[in-house]
Amino acid sequence: xxxxxxxxxxxxxxxxxxxxxxxxxxxxxxxxxxxxxxxxxxxxxxxxxxxxxxxxxxxxxxxxxxxxxxxxxxxxxxxxxxxxxxxxxxxxxxxxxxxxxxxxxxxxxxxxxxxxxxxxxxxxxxxxxxxxxxxxxxxxxxxxxxxxxxxxxxxxxxxxxxxxxxxxxxx
Length: 171
Hints:
This protein is of the alpha+beta class. The chain has seven helices and five strands; from the N terminus they run E-E-H-H-E-H-E-H-H-H-E-H. It has helices spanning 27-34, 42-58, 76-85, 101-113, 116-120, 133-147, 159-169; strands at residues 7-13, 16-23, 72-74, 98-100, 151-155. A three-stranded mixed beta sheet has the order 3-5-4. Strands 1-2 form a two-stranded antiparallel sheet. The relative contact order is 0.20.
């Protein structure tokens, strides 16, 4: 779950929690620190990507060795990536759909080249994210590269919603 202030990583095995990590690679922080211009020069994109990769490498989070282990992205950034890669398809029915890392990489390049108005005019783009969406896509791209994964699956709900559902189910 890529958020405004952090990246939340969870590793589970058949529903049993194995490992968690919270990294300060939030999209607001990354945008303010690295992605100061719109359109965004490739030097800023690569500096942001380097920071993300450094944080991932410095974390204690394990890279799954089993290549069949799927990666799930939840929350706004994952959903936005799916919308952009699918050309603005509606939210209904996207749970479980995949987004290839190559599509995320293409959108990092496309979005960085667009000005504010052209970003907000994109089909499927959530208004109000013109400045921070690029950082979210860069986080997804670098995470997938670090994990050596070709794709991730999208879910429309975030980690907090899962925690709430679990809390209420146990009452």
